[in-house]
């Protein structure tokens, strides 16, 4: 096998700076260090961490090899037009209607590569047969017909480096690329003897070698462009968007790839950071799973804060929403035991309750348990016959809920319980409100109606977000101190390749 050629992965050399340039460089270094420290002081901790294990890498390799084989076998290389300048003149040629008729290769090798913070990939023994049509002219001679091209023992060695740009988008670079072709045979069917004189299989072989690495670099540039076009902000719904840029460069060692993401939710029209910062947490990758995901309290609390500032954390409760079996209904007579003056001032009148958050609910992840603190208020109104409202009283409410959750079959399941509830009177237009007795009634209502309905939905499971051609399997959810870890394998279902698939895309 011939020595592999390095292609299109060049390093730059810079001239030695002058003395004043060195001094200026030091000043810039100090300023840069100060900026970095300022950035760190203002919180660049990731809220989401993702680890791809060796098991995951090898699975991606197998899917990539299958995809490559499918696409090579159904690819349509673009037409080629060119010329060969020779001492006796110029040959103009066109190669058209190319189609891959057969291809095979040994399973490629892919591994994590620390030296370039990326991957090392080797594809060897690639065998390709291509057929198509050709035409050529040399002076007054013109010819054309069909051709067959056979490429044997094509090998590609690639070092792919990972990084990030100024916007936190992933970046890719070809750190090194080598390609060699064992042989390339071209058969021009029914070609004239004059045209056959210009067939140089060594030139064909070397040309293929020279084209491979620039093509790979071009594809990496296209991938970067597409990722940049996607951006790092994704809208979840009309009230919520999430920022997922990288917060630091990818980390690669011999067994895994680790990514750190911002993981902040915000209103789509107002990407403002919440009034708290992410706290550091340590996620250990599990080699028995393809993926490990760490989700910190910051991420869920930023979502809670975004919903709160949007004004969506409020609810109007009417009597029609209360089960008929409930002993307490939204009627002034029903509320008489808790507000003695109410039935006298407004006998047998309909009531409504406005429940709203005073602060964004706070999530806390503790070993095995998710807790949520809620600080809210309840305003009670009488509904007049003409549909207008009269304010009665306002109660401030503090409560804590706890839940245990698990994942299975791409669903989130679990159960939530009420841990405690405190009720205080803020203001009243109807005299005394017996908050202790009302607190018992509210707790009874939550446990009798609200939580059973919610837990029934959780028991059935809430569908997790999925992708069309990829599914998470063997899901394990664990609640740690300050974060949730999710361990998972994956199944990728490749789309069937179609005839006419763009060449090597």
From TrEMBL:
The Lipid-binding serum glycoprotein N-terminal domain is annotated at 52-270
Task: Check the record and name the Pfam families matching this protein.
Answer: LBP_BPI_CETP, LBP_BPI_CETP_C
Q: Which Gene3D superfamilies does the record match to this protein? A: Bactericidal permeability-increasing protein, domain 1, Bactericidal permeability-increasing protein, domain 2
Glycoprotein among keywords = yes
Q: Where is the Lipid-binding serum glycoprotein C-terminal domain?
A: 285-488
Q: List the disulfide bonds.
A: 177-213
Domain comment from the record reads as follows: The N-terminal region may be exposed to the interior of the granule, whereas the C-terminal portion may be embedded in the membrane. During phagocytosis and degranulation, proteases may be released and activated and cleave BPI at the junction of the N- and C-terminal portions of the molecule, providing controlled release of the N-terminal antibacterial fragment when bacteria are ingested. The N- and C-terminal barrels adopt an identical fold despite having only 13% of conserved residues.
Tell me the protein's name: Bactericidal permeability-increasing protein
Source organism per entry reads Gadus morhua
